[in-house]
């Protein structure tokens, strides 16, 4: 015998639109049973969401242009999905979580609106430009020999002659 045969059921809540007396197409509890959502039958094309502990209406989701025949929650309660009866179109309502850029960098400060930044006179000027040019000239003076064959590889191991392809690197006279 199952537990249902011994238990007595009592009416806990009634979920209804008291103004329009709408009928419901489909009902779905979320995964914890805290909320109930229902799609309406008829002309309104809305989804109603109630919290189940008090039976109070929390939100009405609007936006579909057709009767919704099925609703479902995702596991974390951040989206409700329904499909339309006439077109088969899928409608998704989701919670939009704002991005917090301050979480990416500890010294980043979020502001409500853009502010004008006044650049200091020499803030982005290049300093020591002469020193940088001198370093570039020193690097350019280094002579690289590309004609002499190396005896070892970059790790210092001698080349194995069976893996070396002999290539003539001398400049050909035209």
Give the helix/strand layout.
Layout lengths: L2 H4 L16 E7 L5 E7 L5 E5 L4 E6 L6 E6 L5 E6 L5 E5 L34 H12 L34
Antiparallel strand pairs: 1-2, 2-3, 3-4, 5-6, 6-7
What does this molecule look like?
By secondary structure, the chain is mostly beta strands. Among the domains are: 3-94; 129-154, no CATH class. It is 9% helix and 24% strand. The chain has two helices and seven strands. The chain has helices spanning 3-6, 129-140; strands spanning 23-29, 35-41, 47-51, 56-61, 68-73, 79-84, 90-94. The strands form two sheets. It has a four-stranded antiparallel beta sheet, with no helix packed on it. It has a three-stranded antiparallel beta sheet with strand order 5-6-7, with no helix packed on it. The longest helix is centred in the C-terminal third of the chain and has 12 residues, at 129-140. It starts with a helix and ends in a 34-residue tail after the last helix. Keywords: Nucleus, Repeat, WD repeat. It is found in: Nucleus. InterPro entries: RBBP5/Swd1, WD40/YVTN_repeat-like_dom_sf, WD40_repeat_dom_sf.
């Amino acid at each position: 015998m199952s537990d249902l045969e011994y238990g007595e059921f009592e009416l806990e809540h009634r979920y209804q639109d008291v103004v329009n007396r709408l009928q419901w197409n489909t009902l779905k509890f979320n995964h914890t049973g805290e909320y109930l959502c229902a799609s309406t039958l008829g002309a309104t094309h809305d989804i109603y969401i109630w919290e189940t502990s008090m039976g109070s209406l929390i939100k009405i989701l609007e936006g579909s242009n057709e009767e919704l025949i099925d609703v479902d929650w995702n596991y974390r309660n951040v989206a409700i999905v329904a499909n339309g009866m006439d077109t088969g179109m899928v409608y998704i309502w989701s919670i939009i979580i704002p991005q917090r850029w301050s979480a990416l960098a500890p010294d980043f400060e979020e502001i409500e609106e853009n502010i004008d930044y006044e650049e200091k006179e020499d803030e982005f000027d290049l300093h020591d430009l002469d020193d940088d040019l001198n370093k570039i000239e020193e690097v350019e003076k280094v002579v690289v020999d590309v004609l002499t064959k190396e005896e070892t590889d970059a790790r210092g191991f001698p080349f194995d002659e069976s893996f070396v392809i002999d290539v003539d690197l001398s400049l050909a006279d035209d």
